[in-house]
Design goal:
99 residues, globular, 9% strand
């Protein structure tokens, strides 16, 4: 059973997150780079690419343009996580307190 949904939001990343949320409610994960636990956007890159590119982060590693990934590019399904798990991984990486 298929469905079609149009997402309109401030940028592509927010549309992607909305699509992920809807799919997760159906028990599905998107196998895209933007759903990997260590992929997170920077504000400047998000503005410059309308949210299409984000960084693949590693603790202690300086970022470069080589770390940018297209959030819609395919990813191995073993590497993708839910939105909640992705946010938790980023909080852990940045050592932020949970609110």
């Amino acid at each position: 059973m298929g469905f079609e949904q149009v997402y309109e939001d401030v940028d592509l990343l927010e549309c992607f997150k909305s699509a992920r949320r809807d799919l997760e409610n159906r028990g599905l994960l998107l196998c895209c780079q933007g759903a990997r636990s260590n992929v997170f956007p920077s504000g400047m890159t998000r503005q410059m690419t309308d949210g299409r590119l984000a960084y693949s982060l590693e603790a202690g590693k300086e970022l470069s343009d080589d770390d940018l990934v297209d959030i819609f590019a395919p990813a191995d399904c073993s590497e993708v996580v839910s939105l909640e798990d992705q946010l938790s991984a980023m909080r852990d990486l940045f050592r932020m307190k949970r609110s």
